[in-house]
Amino acid sequence: MAAVSLLARKYNSYYAQRPVLTTMITNSVLGGIADTVAQTLTAVRQRAVRKKGGPDKDDFLAIEIHDLDRRHVFSDHDLIPDSKKLPPPFDFERTTRFMSYGFLMSPLQHRWFKFLSATFPVSKAASWIPALKRVAFDQFLFAPAGLAAFFTFMTIAEGGGKRAVQRKFQDVYVPALKANFMVWPAVQLINFKLMPIQYQIPFVSSIGIAWTAYLSLTNSAEEA
């Protein structure tokens, strides 16, 4: 608790002096953590799906993206009996891409959250309605655009062109947007109603470690 308190004080101090830069660095670090989690899960999943017979009841950590698995089935020569010999190497470039995306998107997120805070102020007398309006604006305007920006940025950063971007949108954009609507309205309602503005982006980024890991898995699975 003492460490958390010290970290919060340091963060508040840096945020008061340089709010945008502090948010950019925080988002970048959390994006790197998220992709590290995703790559670890990918290693577990690869071992499960590439062995003969596929995942079994003991592979409880194997994460499968079912729609993509049905379209991209491993051929016989990719299946091996001892799948534990297949830990994929850690992709530092991929982690750098995620950290860069978090860093570059933070100023836009910062402006967006300030806009929502100023447009729909939350008070003791009126807290639920403004918070719900913020969630609605965030989910129906910012979320679809943010996902589009994510997949476009990642595809271009991976060296893909216009066709690769189009293919990425055809394969994964709609499933990811549906998953977004299942997860983020509740998270953002808590965020907008309870969190001070300086903690809103770090809160989203912290909760979003699991979400970013999902996006990383989705992005890499489509590429595979």
UniProtKB/TrEMBL annotation:
Tagged with keyword Magnesium: no
Pfam assignment, any one: Mpv17_PMP22
Keyword Translocase attached: no
Keyword terms of this UniProt record: Membrane, Transmembrane, Transmembrane helix
Annotated membrane topology: Multi-pass membrane protein
One GO location term (cellular component): mitochondrion
Superkingdom of the source species: Eukaryota
Coiled-coil blocks: none
Residue spans crossing the bilayer: none
PANTHER family according to UniProt: PEROXISOMAL MEMBRANE PROTEIN 2, PXMP2 MPV17, VACUOLAR MEMBRANE PROTEIN YOR292C
Family: Belongs to the peroxisomal membrane protein PXMP2/4 family.
Protein name: Uncharacterized protein
Organism: Neocucurbitaria cava
Organism lineage string: Eukaryota, Fungi, Dikarya, Ascomycota, Pezizomycotina
